[in-house]
Specification:
The complex is a heterodimer of chains A (112) and B (113). Chain A is mainly beta and 112 residues long. In chain A, 0% of the residues lie in helices and 54% in strands. With 113 residues, chain B is an all-beta fold. Chain B is globular.
């Protein structure tokens, strides 16, 4: 069974702090995607990383794909209340890129 | 460019009834996946349709069935509803390979009473 372990599950921080969310697996992925979801809405794709060691930046968000393509991290610098939401990672397994394996999500609350 | 459209947005059904949820994929996408999401948790994969056939299926009972039409739109049917079926049902569309990422609709909030 392929698993994608996401941590931490919950995170409550003050505005201006930095944070990192991790997704780890023993399986290799052909791509790893990060989504953000707000209550009552569907997840919105933030980024897709496909190359081992790849780093992508989206304003204050930095995404990294592990060299072995088994793990990924999301780092937020100077978090703002607008960053509050559920962050989900999802991986397309190498050899079967038609489906996604999902992490359980990280619920982030940024307090003003 | 319209994204993924789901209908209805909210639905209340009685235990034992049947429900049909609908999804129109994003233009250019040919694959539709359905997910069930409980409050505060990640999406649980129900099944995926491509070329009008169910291509993959998650751990959901046969009460959950679906269909994809030639225009790539899709339906999710749930028979003999249980209280535990209450959830947000999400439709996601993609190109054939999941590498490009999924586009999700806003979901249908199903409440079974």
């Amino acid at each position: 069974t392929q698993l994608l372990e996401q941590s931490p599950q919950f995170l409550s921080i003050q505005e201006g702090e930095n944070l990192t969310v991790y997704c780890n697996s023993s399986s290799v992925f052909s791509s790893l995607q990060w989504y953000r979801q707000e209550p009552g809405e569907g997840p919105v794709l933030l980024v897709t990383v496909v190359t081992g060691g790849e780093v992508k930046k989206l304003k204050r968000l930095t995404f990294q794909f592990g060299d072995a393509r088994k793990d990924s991290s999301l780092h937020i610098t100077a978090a703002q209340p607008g960053d509050t939401g559920l962050y989900l990672c999802a991986g397309a397994p190498a050899g079967n890129n038609r489906k996604l394996i999902w992490g359980l999500g990280t619920s982030l609350a940024v307090n003003p | 460019d319209a994204g993924v459209t789901q209908s209805p947005t909210h639905l209340i059904k009685t235990r034992g009834q049947q429900v049909t949820l609908r999804c129109s994929p994003k233009s250019g996408h040919d694959t539709v996946s359905w997910y069930q999401q409980a409050l505060g948790q990640g999406p649980q994969f129900i099944f995926q349709y491509y070329e009008e056939e169910e291509r993959q299926r998650g751990n959901f009972p046969d009460r959950f069935s679906g269909h994809q039409f030639p225009n790539y739109s899709s339906e999710l049917n749930v028979n003999a509803l249980l209280l535990g079926d209450s959830a947000l049902y999400l439709c996601a569309s993609s190109r054939t390979a999941a590498n490009y990422g999924y586009t999700f609709g806003s979901g249908t909030r199903l409440t079974v009473v």
